[in-house]
Amino acid sequence: MRQLMHTLFDNKTSADKAAEIGQAPPTARSLRLTNITSRISGTSDASYKCIQRLLHDSAPRQALWRLFQEPATFMIGDVTEIKRSQTRHTAYLGNLSNGKISGFWALVLAAPH
């Protein structure tokens, strides 16, 4: 994870923070920010602020574009619906394909390297 983040981010400190943050969701087995912050070293409040500072100070969108390989001969994509039916009043959630369950879509792309 650390090597990947150093490829994506120019700043070494940002890359190290991104690597630590990037390891937290699989460990927490959750995409909830509260669960992610509990898996990062330090207090939950400090971890939350660390994530917010990284998103504000770095250019995550630019970093993600480094993964895109325009000359690739093919691209594999998968849209996955992630259900969040227990949260009703969260602004970033929409309705999934059935129109009843709250959630969001995750788009996973892969290209040959």
Task: Give a written overview of the molecule.
This protein has 113 residues and is α+β, with helices and mostly antiparallel strands. It has 2 domains: 2-65, no CATH class; 76-110, no CATH class. Helices cover 44% and strands 17% of the residues. It has helices spanning 2-8, 12-28, 33-38, 44-57, 60-65, and strands at residues 76-83, 94-95, 102-110. The protein has a 3-stranded antiparallel beta sheet with strand order 1-3-2, with no helix packed on it. Strand 2 and strand 3 (102-110) form a beta hairpin. The longest helix has 17 residues, at 12-28. The mean pLDDT is 85.
Write the SSE topology.
Blueprint: H1 2-8, H2 12-28, H3 33-38, H4 44-57, H5 60-65, E1 76-83, E2 94-95, E3 102-110
Antiparallel strand pairs: 1-3, 2-3
Helix pairs in contact: 1-2
